[in-house]
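Might I ask for a little of your time on a matter of protein folding? What I wish to show you is a protein chain and, alongside it, a tokenised description of its three-dimensional fold. I should value your view on which stretches of the chain appear to form regular backbone elements. You will find the record immediately after this paragraph:
***
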Amino acid sequence: MEVALLTVGDELLAGDTVNTNANWLAAELSDRGVAVKRILSVPDDRSVIAERVRAYADAFDAVIVTGGIGGTPDDVTMDAVADAFDRDLAATDLTREAVTDHLAAIRERLPDSEVDVDVEAEAAIPVGSRPLLNDPGLAPGCVVEGVYVMPGIPEELKAMFESVADEFAGDRRSRFLYTVEPESDIVPALETAGERFDVAVGCYPDREAAHNRLKVTATDDDALDAAAAWLLDHANASETPVRRNWE
């Protein structure tokens, strides 16, 4: 399974907010054997979001879009996704009830506050899409033509993703090895392992830990194990972190 991540928000591009959602989702998907093929941040621009959603929906098995849903003026993601598939927006019985119940809980918890929310607008999702309820928050998400629309608030995103996590699965597996050999000295071994066993091999130097972390990835368990065994012998690698003074 190949997935693209589209994170929405001017604040991401300005550096005002760290994009922890992309990192968290990529790790969750990778743990499930899914290949994350794209991670892109885009502004709160309806036409830009719609164009990328269309392109990624055609190119990948699924797309996860985070951020820009709700009732503030810069929340244009749901409109953009509807544009991408030429659909109108409308509330469903399920999303309307969920938003209404959440607002009632807010009013009960904060009786002196003025909560003025357009329920129909807040609960609206592209017509014909599958609602994803937002238990910790207000605005619902949805699934439409392989595109999963989720909140940008990390707590809400994580809860919503967990509700559909079983829909993401793949056959990619990885193993990590460690070597204290200088990166330049093990290039031939890494290239040979990749070619001989048809695996992907990444090398990530860590100066603070004084070792290289090798990541071996494959879709065949036997090839993965064979490549790892070969690197243990030919790259002076270990299955546990090791240290040596590189200075």
About this structure: The two ends are 43 Å apart (CA to CA). The chain has two domains: 2-167, 173-238. The CA atoms of residues 92 and 124 lie 7 Å apart. The chain has a mean pLDDT of 92.
